[in-house]
TrEMBL record:
A Pfam family the protein falls into: Peptidase_S9
Identification of the protein by name: Peptidase S9
Source domain of life: Bacteria
UniProt keywords, alphabetically: Hydrolase, Protease, Serine protease
Length: 689
């Protein structure tokens, strides 16, 4: 039945577009490779022949997937109903005000409101829908209120390319004041008196956050206070827990350093805390007269250290071990809160400053995600944290640090969802080299049939980022129709600490692909899926994972969804004019080096498309994407079209007004979820009862 449905869909589709071939020979280290689709690159995003090809692909995809529209509409309605509109987030208190975020019924964009702690009506601080009017794309990147609560600073992406424009609003008069029209980042910090705002700005070409400016409310020209000229490093900005400093973090692939801006003296120059050195990273905070650092001077990984002053000695507070390292920390008046990672999971400990007594937060699920919520009052004896698992909707909790008790402060109301109907598990699979790889999975209890389910395997595996198991309300629609969902925590991520990252980058990158393929095969062997009903999904660097896995095991998966996939890795890493290339040599290697070139040449998906047959594929791109330019997925699909077999669904959808993060509105994002899930459901042969 599934095969019949696919053939019927293709019979009504237009002929797939074929990109013109204009061979270009690229030579390096004695190797010549031919790129027939290099002409698809257009940095201006305006060349008519390129736009015409992308639009032809979009029309073909629309026709190809048209028969799925009724089910897409049904899933979208489910997803919208499940996430109750109009529900407000849990308020938090800061500087005498309560703040909350709220989505009106059916709204694409949120509103932000506040009221005095003493009580009263909620007042509008920011209406994102109003700011989005007349724009094809709008996403609020961040916002910060001045200490006196009068001025609101916002960072807004109005082009979809990730660059921000900054604006200030005088909440007393309602007047909007422009700050930076473009090329800014999302990080902003106010001075203690609220008369100056520091913000990060980016180089326009290539896009790299590299400078910090000070904007004064007196109307003077913005002053450059810091600039990082090494293209391998990027700049970010945050406020210290003490609010005494604005902290500039300068980070590369394997080293970092911090600079201090005095919040009480905004005109003072930036002061370096400790000079960078290869192989050492440190991330800084300040509280109660001392500096605290998450750092890795120890080969075992990240620990926690304290220093009295810039340039001073680092005293060890928590040393890393082979099985545990510090992931993040929070400084409160009576307790040090530390999030540590061990055995593939995070745990949270509270350590009393006086006496050193330690208490660990109990968490109920086999795999989960836990992180700190806003805790603006360090004098509080309570910790707010967020918790989510594959079966537990993301909720806000409070931990009483005196007696260890927890209570739920806010839990979303999801229409028709009962957590007891679903089961999550955590497995360890053995990869081909003997390494144990963690896998998190979830399914609906009454839909699991041993060896009979379709299974969607998700992966990322790069930059030391941990893909912890978290809840997705849209995913419930997939589980309710019999899918098992699994995350392979492959090497290259950070799930098992620094060593896990090292084991999946540079010369070890092949481990990421092996882990993903081996996890899929093992899950089928264990009965969580039919061997002919395996599906793959990944985005960005996870798209590279998917593309390489399909090249190396093309018959393993029946279908895949690749979201803004990084698939032309060799060409991109050879081009230092692209925004992320130089800064990512430490992750993928610099192909100017012959060994790095050979490795990238061996797994870059575009360069290794085989004779096939490949699985059914839905590929997405964003025209204004700076992180993974649209031409990477476009060139990959063009290569795959050369080998497209009769009956294969191969669709490329380019969002013409969006970038790396896809559509900006909440309903639009749900529609994208519905499209991807219905693509997979149709491949699995699902028919609505």
């Amino acid at each position: 039945m599934a095969g019949f449905c696919l053939c019927a869909a293709l019979a009504h589709a237009d002929a797939p577009p074929r990109a013109e071939t204009r061979p270009q020979t690229l030579s390096a280290h004695g190797d010549a490779r031919v790129d027939p689709y290099a002409w698809l690159r257009d940095d201006s995003r305006s060349r008519p022949e390129v736009l015409a090809h992308l639009q032809a692909e979009n029309r073909y995809a629309e026709t190809l997937l048209a028969g799925q529209q009724p089910l897409r509409d049904k899933l979208l309605a489910e997803m919208q109903a499940r996430g109750a509109g109009g529900e407000a987030s849990l308020p938090y208190t800061e500087n005498g005000w309560e703040y909350r975020e709220r989505y009106p019924d059916g709204a694409q964009q949120p509103v932000y409101e506040r009221r005095p702690v003493a009580g009263g009506e909620w007042r509008m601080v920011l209406d994102a829908a109003e700011r989005a009017k007349g724009k094809r794309y709008y996403r609020l990147g961040g916002w910060q209120l001045s200490p006196d609560g009068r001025y609101l600073a916002v960072a807004e992406d109005v082009r979809g390319d990730g660059t921000q424009r900054l604006a200030l609003r005088d909440l007393a008069s309602g007047e909007w004041l422009p700050v930076a029209e473009g090329g800014a980042g999302t990080d902003m910090v106010w001075s203690a008196d609220g008369r100056a705002l520091w913000y990060v700005a980016a180089d326009p070409d290539p896009y790299r956050p590299s400078r910090v400016y000070r904007h004064a409310l007196d109307g003077k020209k913005d002053a450059l206070v810091f600039e990082e000229k090494d293209e391998g490093y990027t700049v970010s900005l945050s406020a210290s827990a003490s609010r005494r400093y604005a902290l500039i973090a300068v980070a590369g692939s394997d080293s970092s350093e911090a600079w201090l801006l005095d919040a009480q003296d905004p005109a003072a120059p930036a002061k370096r805390f400790a000079a960078r050195r290869p192989g050492r990273e440190y991330y800084l905070d300040h509280y109660r007269g001392a500096f605290y650092l998450r750092a890795n001077p120890d080969p075992a990984g990240f620990g926690l250290y304290r220093s009295a002053a810039p340039g001073g000695e680092w005293r060890t507070l928590i040393a890393p071990t082979a099985n545990r390292e510090v992931e993040s920390f929070l400084l409160l008046k009576r307790h040090l809160i530390v999030k540590e990672r061990g055995d593939g999971l995070s745990r949270v400990r509270a350590i009393a400053w006086r006496g050193g007594a330690s208490r660990t937060l109990a968490l109920p699920d086999p795999s989960y995600r836990v992180w700190f919520d806003r805790n603006p009052d360090p004098d509080s004896g309570r910790l707010r944290y967020r918790y989510s698992s594959l079966t537990t909707p993301t909720s806000t909790w409070e931990w009483n640090l005196s007696n260890g008790k927890t209570r739920a402060l806010w839990q979303p109301k999801l229409a028709g969802y009962r957590a007891a109907d679903y089961r999550s598990e955590r497995l360890w699979i053995r990869a081909r080299d003997g390494e144990r790889v963690p896998v998190s999975l979830v399914y609906r209890r009454d839909r699991l049939a041993k060896g009979g389910n379709p299974l969607l395997l998700y992966g990322y595996g790069a930059y030391g980022m941990s893909m912890d198991a978290a809840f997705s309300a849209p995913r419930v629609s997939l589980l309710d129709r019999g899918f098992v969902f699994a995350i392979a925590h492959v090497r290259g991520g950070g799930e098992l600490g620094r060593r896990w990252h090292e084991a999946g980058r540079l010369a070890n990158k092949q481990n990421s692909f092996n882990d993903f393929v081996d996890a899929a095969r093992e899950l089928a062997r264990l009965g969580y899926a039919r061997s002919d009903q395996l599906y793959a999904m990944g985005g960005s660097a996870g798209g590279l994972l998917i593309g390489a896995a399909l090249n190396q095991a093309p018959g393993l998966f029946r279908g895949a969804v690749a979201q803004v996939p990084f698939v032309d890795a060799l060409s991109s890493m050879q081009d230092p004019s692209l925004p992320l290339t130089v800064g990512e040599y430490g992750e993928w290697g610099n192909p100017a080096d012959a060994d790095a070139y050979r490795r990238l040449r061996g797994y870059s998906p575009v360069d290794n498309v085989g004779a096939g047959p490949y699985p059914h594929l839905l590929v997405t791109a964003g025209l204004h994407d700076r992180q993974v330019p649209y031409w990477e997925p476009a060139k990959w699909v063009a290569r795959l079209r050369e080998r497209q077999w009769p009956g294969q669904q191969l669709a490329l959808i380019t969002e013409m007004d969006a970038g790396h993060r896809g559509q900006s509105g909440r309903v639009s994002r749900l529609a994208a979820n519905a499209r991807e899930y219905v693509f997979l459901l149709t491949l699995s042969g699902w028919r609505e009862p």
